[in-house]
Amino acid sequence: MLRTRFTETFGVEHPIVQGGMMFVGRAELAAAVSNAGGLGIITALTQPTPEDLAAEIARCRALTDRPFAVNLTLTLSIDPPPFEEIRQVIIDSGVKIVETAGSDPTVHVEHFKENGIKVIHKCTSVSHALKAERIGVDAVSIDGFECAGHPGEDDVPGLVLIPAAADALNIPFVASGGFADGRGLAAALALGADGINMGTRFMCTVESPIHENIKRLIVDSTERDTRLIMRQLRNSMRVAKNTVSDEVIEILSRGGRFRDIKELVAGARGRTVFTNGDPELGIWTVGLVQGLIRDIPTAGALVHRISSDAEQWLTDAARTVVVAPLAAAGRE
Length: 332
Description:
It is a single chain. The protein has helices spanning 5-10, 27-35, 50-63, 83-93, 106-114, 126-134, 158-168, 182-190, 200-203, 212-220, 243-253, 258-261, 267-276, 299-320, and strands spanning 16-18, 40-43, 68-74, 97-102, 118-123, 139-143, 173-176, 196-198, 226-229, 237-240. By secondary structure, it is of the alpha/beta class. The protein folds into 2 domains: 5-211 and 296-320, TIM Barrel; 212-276, no CATH class. Strands 1-8-7-6-5-4-3-2 form an 8-stranded parallel beta sheet. A two-stranded antiparallel ribbon has the order 9-10. The longest helix has 22 residues, at 299-320. The mean pLDDT is 95.
């Protein structure tokens, strides 16, 4: 079994985290991941009200007695969600792990830590990760350019970002963006991460609450079937290639502004995609890693397979990679 600083800190068996995905991070998926020994995550803002979140947490607790987390993404908007109420629901529910993301989480981290809750903060750069470390989070999840959703504006891929984070941080961190199998987990550990966070891969599981058509489309797609939209607005977002994302790119390339695409990128339309199974109904996020996804297993089987395969990859690498003496290599 793979033991890392992350598994020790958060009391899980496998260094595998299910990403807190909008409209996807629900009780049945989070519980399945946690029951398999990973860390499942409920997405707070998927729930319409704080009361609905409390009910969803209770539903997850009825499905698992293992650790699970709640994702709280701190959005900046004209009409923001009631973050203080949501935070209090999380505290009152007895959840012991929270993943924060988005804007500055300092005030929320302070409240969570005062109530004995461990915090993971999601970042897209080493500088943001260092700030999260300074404000007292217990771990960070660092997203490479390959990830679904918002990859930041630096365009740094995981192969560089992961070892850069390992060199800079003192707290555990998990690597996110581009992970789907045991090879990826083994590579992340070799680069200095303490585990991996997967979103797109967990979308394609039996317990994922999205339409089967979308799961099948992800399986059939390649790493070339995503688009980066809203780059001109410095709010880059990796989404599935479809007629809607192509239209957004075209409008902005002609000098359009957010008001010109607001209806096209509305979250409600993305939710309809996952509910109705028509990929052309709106914008929906997916990562480059869809090119590595070949099946739709149960979440538990996936966690066990990835962990076992990673152990095998690491063992095989130790056996097959031989460092030859210079003389033997013909270099004298």
